[in-house]
Amino acid sequence: MRYGVQKPAYILYMIALLIALSSTGRAQTITVLETRLKAEQAAMDSLKARDLPSQPSSEASVPNQPESEDENTSLNLAEEINSLGDEIKRTEQQLRQAQSQLKNREQDIAQRAREIYKIGRQGILSVLFSAKSLRDAAQRLLYFSRIKDQDQRDVQVLQTARKRVSILYNIHSSQKRRQQILGQRKRQHEQMLKRR
């Protein structure tokens, strides 16, 4: 008999532990994404800080730069643009996946809300009072409590999914802006080289 009392407590403890571990994994994902966003913003700030001269102030300053340095600058910009293009593709894929997961979670929550509405129409009290014994009523109350707790966890997961989509969208937008700036700088640099 004692084992029967401890077993449900043990099972609930294990379920709580698994949920805690999975929510920690989600939190790390958000933390990693926030770190990526900060790194992306730092890269954007760095890009803004290292301006190429838009036009040389005099013709004398142009010959001072060796042609190999100009070619290296051009190659570096092209490599950076290509690398950034690959990053953008990966981010777009992650964003599509996160949006799909968010949509699925929203549909699950909506379905659950419909179910709660249907149960609510019956009334929790009528479900409890229709129990055949006090033990049955207590068990039903425990089930309602577990359902409520699970609903709260589901809402938290939904909020995390929304935050993930938002962060990925911001990373993607920043990458696209950085790619545009690099493309403009590459074109400016090529125009400077043609003027020589």
Question: Could you walk me through the main structural features you see in this protein, from its secondary elements to its overall organization?
Answer:
By secondary structure, the protein is mainly alpha-helical. The protein has one domain (2-48, 66-195). It has four helices and no strands. The protein has helices at residues 2-49, 67-122, 124-129, 134-195. Helix 1 runs parallel beside helix 4 and helix 2 (67-122) runs antiparallel to helix 4 (134-195). The model is unreliable at 1-14, 20-25 and 54-63 (pLDDT under 50).
Distance between the termini: 93 Å
Classification by helices and strands: mainly alpha
Order of helix and strand elements from N to C terminus: HHHH
Uncertain spans: 1-14, 20-25, 54-63
Approximate strand percentage:
under 5%
Biggest pleated-sheet summary: none
C-alpha geometry? rod-shaped
Number of strands: 0
Helix content: over 70%
Evaluate the radius of gyration: 29 Å
How many separate helices?
A: 4
Mean pLDDT equals: 77
- Count of separate structural domains: 1
